[in-house]
Amino acid sequence: MRLDKYLKVTRLIKRRTIANEACDAEKVLVNGKGASYDVKVGDIIEINIGTRPLKVKVLNVTEHATKETAADNYTVID
Q: What's the Cα-to-Cα distance from 61 to each of 4, 34, 49, rounded to whole Å?
């Protein structure tokens, strides 16, 4: 699944257009690399938007997620 779509489905970033712009500006890194990327289970995503950076590990990749199940697709890493 494309990185911008994964960020939107998991609700890490609210809108896909914002996720796409953040990816283009290299504010989102996957395994330390920028640019567009296909997300796989086990990848580490770093989001550097806002005041506090966020680092998550991908646990699951699904096409659709409800509000309640979106957070089950990743775990936050300190």
A: 13, 19, 22
pLDDT digits (tens, 9 = 90+) for 30-53: 998 876 688 999 999 999 988 889
For residue 32, the one-letter residue type is: G
- Which helix (H) or strand (E) segment holds residue 28: the answer is strand 28-30
Give the contacts of 69 (CB within 8 A, at least 6 positions apart): none
Between CA 66 and CA 72 the distance in angstroms is 10
- Write down the pTM of the prediction: 0.88
Long-range contacts at 15-24 (CB < 8 A, ≥ 24 apart): 22/47, 22/49
The answer to whether 45 and 58 have CB atoms below 8 angstroms apart is yes
